[in-house]
Amino acid sequence: MTDGEAPEVSGANLHWRALEGLYASAPINHKFRSSLEIVGEGLSRITFLIEPDCFHAAGAAHGTIYFKMLDDAAFYAANTLVTDRFLLTTSFNLHFSKPIKGGRVVAEGRWVSGRRRVLVAESWLLDEEGEEVGRGTGTFMRSRIALSGLPGYTASKVS
């Protein structure tokens, strides 16, 4: 692409933008300062601002926040490969490596395997210094829920 040229609009790009809209429209995501970016097939990045209302009694992010960030990043990385159905998390393993004391955290997700019924994706969390603070692996399966019927998923044409 050169200066002044419009970005390519393909079925994949429409699907990715629609997934970003789906994330933004989910009621749970209105409770967090976060945004999703699909960066390519099988790749996602979610930026979160972790504030004290997410802390446990000892002053760091509660484990539910780690799970939310890791699951979302892996889920959306996997759902880039499925254009017709919403995926469901069937299992998720996570590992905490450092407390999050607040600030900007980036969750990155990457599809690992599977394309038909079950998909596997991994994700990791990076704090403001770029240090990994958590990692996870999830298994996701196709549901009967059509993406096109979900509020927020607004791709007019997906290949």
Brief characterization of the structure:
With 159 residues, the protein is of the alpha+beta class. The protein has helices spanning 11-25, 63-79; strands at 33-40, 43-50, 85-96, 103-113, 118-126, 132-146. It has a 6-stranded antiparallel sheet with strand order 1-2-4-5-6-3.
Strand content: 35-45%
Give the terminus-to-terminus CA distance. 22 Å
Number of separate strands: 6
* Shape label: globular
Q: What attributes does this structure have?
A:
159 residues; alpha+beta; Thiol Ester Dehydrase, Chain A; six-stranded antiparallel beta sheet; 2 helices; 6 strands; globular; Thioestr_dom; HotDog_dom_sf; Thioesterase domain-containing protein
Tell me about this structure.
The protein has helices at 11-25, 63-79; strands at 33-40, 43-50, 85-96, 103-113, 118-126, 132-146. The chain is globular, with a radius of gyration of 16 Å. The chain has one domain: Roll (Thiol Ester Dehydrase, Chain A), CATH 3.10.129. The chain has a six-stranded antiparallel beta sheet. The chain is built from two helices and six strands, in the order αββαββββ. Helices cover 20% and strands 40% of the residues. With 159 residues, the chain is of the alpha+beta class. A hairpin with a 2-residue loop joins strand 1 and strand 2.
Task: Give a topology summary.
Blueprint: H1 11-25, E1 33-40, E2 43-50, H2 63-79, E3 85-96, E4 103-113, E5 118-126, E6 132-146
Antiparallel strand pairs: 1-2, 2-4, 3-6, 4-5, 5-6
